[in-house]
Write the structure tokens for this entry.
Amino acid sequence: MRLATWNVNSVKARLPRLLGWLDETKPDVVCLQETKCRADLFPAAEVKELGYATAAHGDGRWNGVAVLSRVGIEDVSLGFPGEPSYAGEAGAEDEAGQMELSEPVLLAPEARAIGATCGGVRVWSLYAPNGRTPESAHYAYKLAWFEGLRDALGAELAEGAPLVACGDYNVAPTDEDVWDPAVFVGSTHVTPAERQALADLRALGLRDVVPTPMKGPHPYTYWDYRAGAFHKNMGMRIDLFYASEDVAARVGSAYVDREARKGKGPSDHAPVVVDLD
DNA sequence: ATGACCGGTCGTACCGGA
């Protein structure tokens, strides 16, 4: 069984490359992030021609996650129980410079998580909030989102089914996972609290399936589009494949498909591909 | 190939990305 996770940075913009990659790589289950696509507009017919059923979660311009599977797709969860929403910066001023009255507004959670059972494995495709800066409300939201995720995955793991939780975690687990730690001092993705959030997930029994880089010593999965970062290997490992212990024990091989980052019109993230025995 | 971003949007300029 071949599983993969890929932040495609718009499924619409990436569709030709996604279809070519599916045809070539032939994964059984694929977790996609940043589809930036309303669920009812997802190109399900196109991937179905390659044998994949789709479960999509998305409401438009930003975020958006999906699971593609050719080994069945059941018990789809749009988001996770208790998933927090983002209410924006507190104390924002309106155009007249007046503080807005804080009226309670119930916002739906963003489309950052979708779960499905595929081929006997519980699969989660995750797109963690960016966090922006450690001082921002978005960063507090990121930590709250991870806390909610830990509780939801903990409840599922307690049921004992094989589970994978993979996607764009927007956290580099260690300093080895960024090309230059000095550049990231004071930035998100490397703070102790974010790394603790990952540790809290591992404490549930999830194992970090670290892929083979294929080139160079670091299994980076993301390279900024700017400044030739990919060619200079100025990357980060932020797309993670977390697996329950029984699944992790079945991992035969895992690799970063950096070929998918090359050429014209790539995503800024490369897929992670994991083969289970 | 020795230099370098991209996608989205009823703001073709700006936000979000990390």
